[in-house]
Each structure stands twice: as structure tokens, then as C-alpha cells.
Sequence to fold (286 residues):
Amino acid sequence: MTFLPHPIVHHPFAYSYGPVGFTGFGLAVLLAFLVGQVVAQHELARRGHDPEPVSDMVFAAVIGGLLGAKLYYVIVLGHWDAMFERGGFVYWGGLIGGTLAVMAVVAKKRFGTWRMLDVGGIACAAAYAVGRTGCWAVGDDYGRPWKGFLAVAFPDGAPPSTAGVMAHEFGLMVPNGVSPNAVLSVYPTQLYEVVLGFIMFLVLWRMRDHKHAQGWLFGVYMVFAGLERFVIEFFRAKDDRLLVGLTYAQGIALVFVALGVAVMIARSRVAPGKEGIYAPDVVAAA
Fold:
């Protein structure tokens, strides 16, 4: 195994102003929820529906998403000492926790579950593309050791991309004689995810004027999100392997794809009890 002699060296984006600290991760999360809210409100208004409920949904997504992402990291992966640390948030935990929290609010206030899901898929894709820049900013969720175009070293990452971390935290093989403190170049999987997330958003945005029942587009999002996560896991530094070398995240991704296909089939046609995406007055005006 060899590494680039001069990879890109990345240092965390963080600034402090007196007692107040700002990190790239925090800013990215804030922008992600803001972008998701703008996209969802715009699309609801375009379809002739009230965009006001999105504010309540975003608040629920913030609480449920952050809590779910942290609990997944602590409980499922067994990192019990990271409950109150700044790092340690897992994508699937955040998506599942955020979705459950949002659906609870939607159901309680009767906003229309399938209606909100249909615009939620587009909003989630946009928010994901923005939010993943935060992982890049703090040097988190990087890939396996690699040399090649855009190979990046994270000497101050969370955790640093050292040979010792690769061996002890991720169970990866490193060459004999390499110092545990040696900083290795890795796949910049955060950048891959930003690009794939943006492509996913563009495709869903192009499909937003679909003629299927409400909720169909969320099924499409589930398929795309599952496939994206399944592919990216082959490049990430991970230690949570299941059968045939797949990770926990890949197992969840396959379930997510299957559920997405089921939603697409169930919501493929407008029928009694399965409304189209436009409000009645918009349909009449057309």
C-alpha cells in the first residue's frame, strides 16, 4: 500500500470569537436546514398548498435528526463515550430520527402526510448536499487510505487520518513499519457525497412535476438515497461490517431502496384516496 507523497492537506474550518466558537460543521447543518425549508416551502406554494407548516416540520427535523444521528452512533456502533462530544453523528440515524419526528408533527397537525413526503424528498436531497460540506469542513467521515486524484490527508481530522487510527478504530491494514502517527492520504468521500447529493437533488427537481399520486417522489428519493449510501460505503473507512463484507449502513440502504420501490408502486397512480400533487384550484385553473 502506497500513498501520495504530497496529498492535499486539510485542516478543520473553525473560528473563535471570545467564548463563542464556530465550526464548518455547525454552519453547514444550519444552512442545510435553511435550504431544505426554502425548497419545501417553494414547492408547496407552487403546487397550491400552504407552505407555513414547513417551519414546524423543520424544527422537528432539527431535534429528531440530531438526536437520531447521535443515538445511532452511541448505541448501534457502541461509542458510549461520545454522547456529549461534538462529533459522532451518523447519516442514517439522522435521516430516520428526523423523518420520524417530522411525521409525528405532520400527523398530529394533519398537514397531509403524503403531500409533505412528496416535497420532503426534494428538500432532503438539497439539505444533504449542503450538510455534507460540514463533514468536509471538520475532517469527519473520510474514506479508506488511497493515493490518486484528490487524495486528502486529515492531520487534524475527527479523528486524524493516521495509520494508528486506521488500524485500531477502523480495522484497516497498514504496511509494516509505518508509524502509528503517520498521516495517510484517503478518499475524500465527503466531497463525493456533496456531488452525489447535488445530482440527486437536480434529478428530483426535474421530476417534481410528476403525474403520480402524492408520495411517489419520496419513493424515488428513497431509492436514490439508498443507492448513494450503498455505493459510498465501499470507499469509506468503516469498522462495522456485516455479512459478505457489507456495512450496517449498506444493510439499511438496501432496506431503504426496497421500501422506496414499494412506495413508488403504491403511489404510482392517482385514485380515490390517492390525490395528485396539485391543489384542486390549481388543477381547475390549468
The chain has a mean pLDDT of 88. The CA atoms of residues 84 and 95 lie 20 Å apart. DSSP finds nine helices and five strands in the chain. The longest strand covers residues 14-17.
